[in-house]
Design brief:
Length: 265
């Protein structure tokens, strides 16, 4: 049996032409980069965050580069805010979001015995309840429109591993990983795939103060790659899970950490 693949045929499966992609926490860091990457692949991108001035700037930069984008305010812990944002998306693009990247999140490192109730509940709200509420709202609209979609949850290797003083962050990311599997199972009949990316150590607005400290520099020196990940090293996994190139992937957790999480020490 001979196999013949037309030139460019494989790359076409990574195209997002005609799709609407929503990225939460798109005002900086990973979310900002992901919004640009999805737009470059042909998607009409919705940049969402609580700080609307930040996502307005990101959307404008995407449009200046020739892409299609809009900005909207969204608080992932507020169902009314989520509904209003999704209404705005459909009014602007005439379609529900086909691709959702649940990137909004936070961290607040504190030892378990010193953690306050507010520190615990605030991360539960943004890191776990937020993706639950946004995914549910997006999925309900896709099901009503009889359209499939791709949901991508941004987890962390700290959802697999334990690290001192990160019990609230690690617990929420571990729960997000398992919630990804449950979402995938329940939405499977509707053609809505749910997968997750679990990044290792990457620079971000949240983590840079630690990485720039002496303790952070020692941690980086002990990594397998001896450096942080580069944001562009998440582009491939993102495009894979967002596109038809991953049409048979559902409930998968893609770890991107250069082997950090598989070694013993």
């Amino acid at each position: 049996m001979s196999i013949h693949i037309e030139a460019g045929e494989t790359l076409k499966r990574f195209s997002l032409e005609g799709r609407v992609a929503l990225v939460t926490g798109a005002g900086s860091g990973l979310g900002e980069r992901m919004a640009h990457v999805l737009a470059a692949a042909g998607a009409r991108v919705v940049c969402a965050a609580r700080r609307v001035e930040r996502v307005e700037a990101v959307a404008e930069a995407i449009r200046a580069a020739g892409g299609k984008a809009m900005a909207c305010r969204m608080d992932v812990g507020d169902k009314a805010s989520i509904g209003a944002a999704l209404d705005a998306v459909e009014a602007r693009f005439g379609s529900p979001a086909h691709i959702l990247v649940n990137n909004a999140g936070g961290t607040d490192p504190t030892a378990f015995h010193q953690m306050t109730e507010a520190q615990w509940t605030s991360l539960l709200d943004v890191n776990l309840s937020g993706p639950f509420y946004v995914t549910q709202a997006v999925a309900q609209r896709l099901i009503a429109a009889e359209q499939g979609g791709a949901i991508i949850n941004i987890a962390s290797i700290l959802g697999h591993l334990a690290y001192p003083n990160f019990i609230n962050y690690g617990t929420t990311k571990g729960a997000l990983i398992h919630m990804t599997r449950y979402m995938a199972l329940d939405l499977l009949p509707y053609g809505i795939r749910v997968n997750a990316i679990a990044p290792g150590y990457f620079p971000s607005e949240m983590t840079n103060p630690f990485y720039e400290s002496e303790a952070g520099k020692k941690e980086i020196a002990n990594l397998p790659a001896k450096r942080l990940g580069r944001l562009e090293e998440l582009d491939g996994p993102l495009l894979l899970l967002a596109s038809e190139a991953s049409s048979f992937m559902n409930g998968s957790i893609v770890t991107v950490d250069y082997g950090h999480s598989i070694r013993l020490s």
